[in-house]
Amino acid sequence: MKLCVIPIDNRPVCYNLIQGICRIDNDIELIMPPRHMLGSLKKDADVVGLFGWLNKLPEVDAIVLSLDTIAYGGLIPSRRSPESFEDIRDRMYDFKEVLQTKKSKIYAVSSIMRIANNNCNEEEKEYWSKYGKLIFEYSYTKHKFANKLGLESPIRNIIPPDILRDYKQTRLRNFKMNQIYLNWQKEGFFDTLIFSKDDCAKYGYNVMEADFLSQMGGKVITGADEIPLSLISRAIKCDMSVNIKYTEPESTNLISNYEDVSVEKSLQNQLNFARVEIKEENPDITIIVNNFKDHQGEIVMKQDTEQFSGELTLPETPYMVADVRNANGADNNFMEEFFKKFRYDGFYGYSGWNTSANTFGTLICCAKVKFNAEKKGTYNDKAFKKVEMVRFLDDWAYQANVRQQITEPCNIQPMMKPYEEKVSQILNLPIRNEYFYPWNRLFEIEVSDELH
Question: How many C-beta neighbours within 10 Å does residue 308 have?
Fold first, then answer.
């Protein structure tokens, strides 16, 4: 299978992880733009360069792409870009013409602009540092109360008019672009088009937009960074079935942080989207979900939750593990029990990073690529071990442990050593890693090793 992927940006989970998972199947020939062309925290993607790169793209079976990368320069620039609707619209029509010459199946994602409930402008416009929470509250109350009563939210009077106007114009621009993409979908241009919805509350402009797009026939999924991997899962033509086992089966209806659907619904959405059948009897793989009892923890924000305290039983059949008891990191209690019972034979992956949707989408893609490769006889075990090594060291070692001991980017190799030894032991894999901060912040690390 020849596969082209244009990612959301250059983060390790958006670029390196795609490469790593695709290497699990020796039959996948992956083509991606050079990493320096993609956007970062402070830099937009080189859209002109990407046009030139795409023009030279050889014939491929499928193209998986983030429309935000071309339209705005990336996911984060989609919230910051000052360009007009007309300029972006014209660019995307030019991009459509280029794609039409490729005669490939196109799997695309476009984000519904998020509304972060904080006063942090690291990924937003400058005014978010002062008015972010107020804009969130305005959006929330506007949807919940004001629209239904035909009134305006009183919070409007607290936000400077020029800032609220700019915010609304940016939202409207992006929403109008999403409506254009939806029309392209109805024309048959896309094999699959997804509108991603991340950092959600129950109410808000983003929820209203999602409802509108759904009513008009669009497909909306809660999530963001994992969606290109979910699209890869969908593009792989392989029948696979799973059974789901929750560590807290009475709590599957609870809603995760940064999402607006239950844990159970989030997982079902990802499985359905990936064309994976849910099957209780004789499934190909069992998904073990370490979910939460009362509320999801948030390690970074120091929001505790009741950690895993039961006894873990791994099935004798193939299995994979989704650890969503916390957002942004593993559950140490669960991992201790998991490593005691760990069995590599029949293991199809672990994931526990960021949101529940991030975890589910990544895990399903990795498992489906491995399952399909094994069926075809093109499986690369070394590549699979490398992906799992990174997930264990990032989601468990760094996010849930080492990150809690530091306050700024620094040399973490000495602190990572004990965790490396554990991962090396269970995967039977020599580890010689270096660790980097690609965006010069604690939120993500890049695990670089000598295994190729």
Answer: 22
Q: How far apart are CA 65 and CA 76, in angstroms?
A: 16
CA dist., res. 206 & res. 197, Å (int): 7
Contacts of 113 (CB under 8 A, 6+ apart): 78, 79, 170, 171, 174, 175, 205, 206, 209
| Single pTM value for the model | 0.95
Average of per-residue pLDDT across 321-344? 97
**Long-range own/partner contacts, residues 43-47 (CB < 8 A, 24 or more apart):** 44/72, 44/73, 44/74, 44/77, 44/81, 45/9, 45/69, 45/70, 45/73, 45/74, 45/77, 47/73, 47/91
Residues 323, 388 contacting (CB under 8 angstroms): no
Please determine, for residue 220, whether its predicted confidence score (pLDDT) is greater than 50.
yes
> Domain residue spans in the chain?
2-233, 239-448
Rounded Cα distance, 307 and 290, in Å: 10
- Listing DSSP states for 295-345 in one string gives S-EETTTTB--PPP-S-----SS-EEEEE-SEESS--HHHHHHHHHH---T
Asked whether residue 330 carries a pLDDT value surpassing 60, the answer given is yes
How far is CA 287 from its chain centroid? 18
Look up residue 58 and give its amino acid. Answer: P
DSSP assignments along 160-219, one per residue: -HHHHHHHHHHHHHHHHHHHHHHHHHHHT--SEEEEEE-S--SSSHHHHHHHHHHHTT-E
| Environment class of 302 (CB within 10 Å of its CB; exposed 0-12, middle 13-18, buried 19+) | exposed
Residues 375-392: tens digit of each pLDDT = 999 999 999 999 999 999
Which amino acid is it at 221? I
pLDDT in tens, 229-269: 999 999 999 999 999 999 999 999 999 998 888 999 999 99
**Encoded tokens for 175:** 């929403």
| Pairing verdict, β 446-448 and 434-436 | antiparallel
What 3-state DSSP class applies to 262? strand
Q: Which of 246, 186, 242, 245 is nearest to 218 (CA)?
A: 186
- Residue range 2-233, CATH number: 3.40.50
Which amino acid appears at position 331 of this protein? D
Distances (CA, A) of 177 to 68, 96, 113, 182, 429: 10, 13, 11, 9, 47
- Top-confidence residue, 53 or 451: 53
Q: Do 448 and 433 touch, CB atoms closer than 8 A?
A: yes
* Tens-digit pLDDT profile for residues 405-452: 999 999 999 999 999 999 999 999 999 899 999 999 999 999 986 543
Please state the rounded mean pLDDT for residues 27-48.
96
